[in-house]
Amino acid sequence: MFGIRFIRFQPSEYALVYKNGKVVKEGQGLAFRYYAPRTALVMLPLSSIDCPFVFSEATSDFQTVTIQGQATFRIVDQKKVASLLNFTVRVGQNGGAAYVSDDPQKLSQRVGNIIRVLTKKHIESLMMVDSIRASEKLAQLILSDIRQNEEILALGIEIMGLSVLAVQPTKDTSHALEAETREKILKTADDAIYVRRNASIEQERGVKENEYNTEIAVENKRRQVRETQLAAQQAEMQKKHELEVEQLAFQIAQEEKKKTLVAIEAENARTQADAKAYELKAMMDVLKGLDAEVVRALAAVQMQPAALIANAFSTLAGSADKIGQLNISPDLLREILKP
Questions:
Q1: Which among 119, 141, 169 is the end of a domain?
Q2: Does residue 301 sit in the same domain as residue 165?
Q3: Does residue 92 fall inside a structural domain?
Q4: Tens digit of pLDDT for each residue in 113-170?
Q5: Which residues are CB-neighbours of 103 under 8 A, at least 6 positions away?
Q6: Residues linked to residue 31 through DSSP beta bridges, in sequence order
Q7: In-domain check, residue 188
């Protein structure tokens, strides 16, 4: 009514109230009434502002890459920003405030242009492959440069952070890189298969060699066992031969002794026979002139009872034609045969 209006700014908004070209009131989250025909209101955000960017640049090897990222900044000198850009707001009938120009968007555009210039300087010094891998390093270099940039300082803003999300080549280049990398991966896989197969062959050969070495060792052991057995048999046979030789030598010695003994016995027997023959001859010479009955009686003098009985039966047998009957009882034979 009559041009007097009420406005309330949020805590994240900084207000500048101008009258006649001079700041008469300023602050954060103000609420006040003002006379619209003679008052200009400037509203600047205190919260951080995100500035996403996407642009393409050429690397040192003349390859185009697309850089995508985001910068975050905030306004630290409100009056300086207000003097460079138009942040004036107009309050509508419903009490809402709106900027009267598009300068607030230009602030983000200026920050984006500065980032692009600084990025271009660093991208041009990198090869395409290196730039793809240098997202974090590139972000650190750009952030360090932009914080010292005079234009940024002149705008009255502070860069809070900057990140490079991706550095991507063109589709054709990306496909070529993928093909090259894919071939390298396939080659690596083939090499791995080749190495694995070689390792398997080496292991198999080692197993075969171990088997052959084991067989050779077993055969050597068997040969040693056979040689040991043959040596034992040979030693046993040698020992048996030595024992047989010793036994034969002993038997020969025994036979020699027996031969000597037999010769001695034969000599003794011959001597005894000669002595008996001489004795018989002498006795025969003595008995030559005696009667047979006398000789028989003399012979019976030294006879044993059994011999005497035998002689008696012989005499009886010689006179059998003269004997009518002869009875010999069993008792008589038992008494005769007693030793």
A1: 169
A2: no
A3: yes
A4: 999 999 999 999 999 889 988 899 999 999 999 999 999 999 999 999 999 999 999 9
A5: 85, 86, 87
A6: 8
A7: no
